[in-house]
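Input:
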Amino acid sequence: MTVMTLGKALNEGLRAAMETDSRVLLMGEDIGVLGGVFRVTDGLAEDFGEARVIDTPLGESGIIGTAIGLAMRGYRPVCEIQFDGFVYPAFNQIVTQLAKLHYRTAGRVRLPVVIRIPFGGGIGAVEHHSESPEAYFAHTPGLRVVSCAQPADAYVMIQQAIASDDPVIFFEPKRRYWEKADVNTEVDLSNADVLGLHRARLLRTGRDATLVAYGPMVKTCLAAAETAAVDDRRELEVLDLRSLSPIDFAPLFVSVRKTGRMVVVHEAPGSAGLGAELAARVTQECFYELESPVIAVTGFDAPYPPARLEEHYLPDVERVLDGVDRVMNY
Amino acid sequence: MSRSAWTFLSWEKTTDRSSAVRQNFDLPLAADRSGSGRQRARVSRSSAMLGAMAEHESFVQLLNPAGQRREHPDYSVDFTSAEYRGLYEDLVTVRRLDAEATALQRQGELGLWASLLGQEAAQIGSGRALRRQDVVFPSYREHAVAWCKGLDPMSAIRLFRGVDHGAWDRQTTNFHGYSIVIGAQTLHATGYAMGITKDGPVGKDDAAAVIAYFGDGATSQGDTNEALIWSSVFAAPVVFFCQNNQYAISAPTRRQSRIPLYNRAAGFGLPGVQVDGNDVLACYAVTQAALQRARVGEGPTFVEAVTYRMAAHTTSDDTSRYRNASEEEYWRQRDPIIRYRAFLERERLADAQFFDSVAAQADAHAAQLRHLTLTMPDPLPETMLDHVYAEPHAELDRQKARYRAYLDGFDDSVLEPDAASARVPGWRKS
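Output:
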């Protein structure tokens, strides 16, 4: 076990994947000599060379489009999109090509492409640097969408994503890059004990209500659960969804059947977001066990605000607990 | 030169049609409506375009519209008589198949067809310059390039009939899927070419090269511009083959560019060559040279083949709304097949018997195409959920099982087959 930040865990995961498979390539803007704006690829160009850690021209569609071509040639490209708000120039290539080529070719073309996207707010950034666009991708058949919340998962999940024969959109909680925790870099990924890429992880057990989150909101929910236990003597269960497409519903249903109450938390706007899908499916499957309607604590249906307002936009412990109050007092 | 697919067809299945060329020449042209007032109002604008076209005479040409051989300081071809005749066979066959597909669409057998009429020389010339190992990333109109790469002609038919999305075998044909999103494939071609460089064979004469096909409209797409940048910066072994057929649906090329398209290449740091796209020999020579540059590691080339989409954009399009008969006549004088036949006759490379047999063989190919289209089964309903992912996906398995159960809920003994079909679109007994 080594204590490391989430960013470093991703770095080590990328390194391990590159050592395991010589066909793994990294592509992106400023990922080489600079090591990426968040330093996630720090040192990799030096160790693996610029043929495998490719500083690309500045064009997101070009990055994804050429990654598709490289994947057709047998490579496994891992693309970095510098910030969430810059993925849109590549949206066409992701949705019309990357997501659909396996289907279009009746399985003849496999595209093992990973797209890493630092996402979410909370870092005081200017516009386009704090967005949560995950629903666009989760809504697109053919893509797999995941998000890590903790260093140990970051290390394993990035390797699992690279090993996947399907395209994976890999959302990294940018404001948690500097969170530290134990990471087991000796872990054997083929071990059956290692949680699969598309499995949710139960982080805290409780009997009163279920908190569901992913990415940056997992830490917020854990803090809220701690506060609820101390201040309100409420035992909240916290589920880290980890995979947004496909969603691992089974542990969610088990949890909600036990607690009868659910609060889903994400930074993205609420309308037509992941929370809406979770609420719908839980209502469908756990209708008789629910003690209250599902409550979503999310960002607002407004563009991400200027940084001086973001603390109002982002769900925090208090807003999560307010959601808990609403399901408890229904 | 290798002959293409469908050699099983007999040459003896002759019909009394005079020639495939003339027959198909007439087919897709809509009634001449140049007499209408609406058409007359547009003449001046169109004439301006023809004037701009004349300035393009800087292009590489080895065969003038009268079929006379011209010399060029940089480009030449060296074919045997049989190879010269083979090109003619290709040109006529792909035009005949194209006409058959258009007819099948008109008869309701295809949902849509994107005709290549008028672009045969650009596609056969460039397509026959490709070696077996060269990899094609086409747009959606490259039926003749597909023919050169040995793709079963039914592949495109299946796509336009709506049986699949173009699921042919890329591995053995080196012919990738039709890209309906304009310009998207240029980036795939570039990335694939970068992969060839990484794999190592570039620089040797037997290396593979990549060719991306697209049209004049695609040059306005960001993806095409990014592909030119990427290929240039990484010296990718790729040829950008732009068929400037004068229209992006209704928008003329001058709406895409104020300068000849091939002149754009210089700004990206790669050579640009303009070729007479209705001259099969010039298209062959220019493409072959560009492929060779790629092979030996000199990087990408941009080729602009100046041609004309003699038919509509697709069978859903109506050319009478944006161009007139005089313009079409101008290009009819430059028909790539008439020109090439005149050359063969002038040089005594082929006789009447040859031309008749080619026409007959093309007719036989067309009959085969028709037969296979009319007998093509629809796919089973739940196959629409196959191949969304390469790896297992529980949610799709659930949806598939549920839909299968739903279909099975229809009681065949109660419902007449017709009633069941009407109730569930695409339903059939399996």
